[in-house]
Amino acid sequence: MRVVLGQIQGFLERSVTESSGVVVGVSGGADSVALLHLLHRANQHLARKRLLIVAHANHQLRASESDDDEQFVRQLAGRLDCEFVSRHLAVREAMAHTPDSVEMVARRLRHLFLASTAQAKGWHHISLAHHADDQAELVLIRLLRGGGSDGLGGMAETSPSPMDSDIRLWRPLLKQDREQIRTWLAQENLPFREDSSNSDTAIVRNRVRAELLPQLARIYNPAIARVLCRTADILGAEADFVRDSALEWISQEQKRPFTELPLALQRAVLREQLLSLGQVPDFELVERLRLHPDSRQSAPHNEGYRLAASGGLSRQPINVPASPYPVIHLELSGSEGSVAVGGRELVWKISSQPQPLGTLGLEQFDMAKIGGTRIFVRSWLPGDRFRPLGYPCAAKLHDIFISHKIPRERRSQALVFETLEKRIFWVEGLPLGEEFKIDATTGLILTLSVRRPHGL
Question: Please, what is the angle between helix 2-15 and helix 30-44, to 10°?
């Protein structure tokens, strides 16, 4: 691990300022314990040490075992003289509000917790203990589910946090395999915790780890994990090049005709435009658009898209009345910002602490329940259903407007806020959504306010 130690020290010197530090995600397992010790040792060799915060997410999924993990990490942080923070994540409660798997929900809540910890300090780096075997497993899982070069490219050593693009995720162990890490821990006599859920083969990643990869290594290639990681490196670099080329083509005023672009570039251009419109760019939709230009193609949730001969993509809702303003897809990047919509200014702020309330047109939401920083803003549509704060269940938005005595002319102008899963979490002029309120388990808080010109 001497080489890794030097690489970590070099990264700290180059990328982490002396006034800043690193949030280290530590579960208590072998990989994260090794990561913390390596970071701590590398830090000791710096002329001016960087601060380290040990962040532990308690998912509350394994009863007392989860609490024992938290206590182990707390004591480890104390022995290394590192600040310790932990948060109990309401994974099971969040499962009631999404069709996602427990692993996806836990991951989203965990990233929100880590990002909020970094934001509270004004830091820009979170270190995670992903290693080469994690990379190989991820590539196989994405291959089985169907993925292009961008997905099969796997994880990069550094990448933006999915919760805040200003924060970088750093994976110093990505080139080391599980056996190397555990051998080093044994040599250094460093204890760690074993997660009993890792043996649960009902979880896809565990089945890949316990069954598929060993069989591929035994029957086809003993170095299969290394081959998969090398493949991820190759495809990731190629995907980055194609993506950058697509974005460059989109930004050009004088373009090479879309139909003359290489097939891979055509698909990338469509994927990037769909993402900018808030649409998941699945392969089937991309191909229908590419093969049938100037023809409206349907997508979920009454969405439609048309590809012009020039290569430009436009949204064309299906069987819905025209809105007084277009659907806006917002990426709430950074800790705060604003955007003009419907003749008003929408202002947002992301923080770990609640903001003072009592202002008309201001509400606060649990970002974990919203699902991240990407949302839709639109006008209301017939058939919309919403559950305001205090309501026992969702009701027709039209009926809620009437019960709250919202004038007809104001209804058509009200901003409707949706998650990427098309769940309404707020309607301007009404209380926030019951399922999105902040509580004792909340990590990051999204504050939204709508500022109207006088008389609107």
Answer: 60
